[in-house]
Amino acid sequence: MKVIIYTDGSSLGNPGPGGCAAILIYGNKRLEISRGYKKTTNNRMELLAVILALEALKKDNLNVIIYSDSNYVVNAVEKKWVFDWVKNGFKKKKNADLWMKFLELYHKNNISLQWVEAHAGILENEKCDLLAKKAAENPLYHDDEFEKLSS
Asked: Measured between alpha carbons, how far is 47 from 137 in angstroms, rounded to an integer?
């Protein structure tokens, strides 16, 4: 069986408060995750949603399909850009901290990313969008490394 994951990120201002969300589906099991951050960017939230989903997996060597409406995330992986960034030491690349964390998790499973159009009526994508926006508005924010990196 495959693990199917939908993710989304949101930022109220760029930078500004942000949120990310993921829905994991494995057979008849379903897990929804969301988290809000004090100050971040939309791209960080899109990538962090994927990371949170992969961190929630309890096993390795799984077949995983991640659906995201983020061209930034999908293209970086599927077009292999991120692997070139690694070779170049992430020179002049934003979000290197998150990309390195993503790559640690990426190599544990057989992962493919698939782009989906935002706000196109895809139930789980719409739910992730709602969860991410609610998390961005949540007063119980987490800290994102963005604040340290941008200081």
From this structure: 19
What's the pTM value of the predicted model, to 2 decimals? 0.93
Of 18, 19, 36, 69, the catalytic one is 69
The reply to whether 137 belongs to the active site is: no
DSSP state of 110: E
pLDDT, tens only, 30-71:
999 999 998 999 999 999 999 999 999 999 999 999 999 999
Asked if 129 is an active-site residue, the reply is yes
Query: Which superfamily does 2-149 belong to?
Result: Ribonuclease H-like superfamily/Ribonuclease H (3.30.420.10)
User: Which 3 state secondary structure label does DSSP give 127?
Assistant: helix
Q: Choose, from 18, 19, 36, 46, the residue flagged as catalytic.
A: 46
8 is catalytic: yes
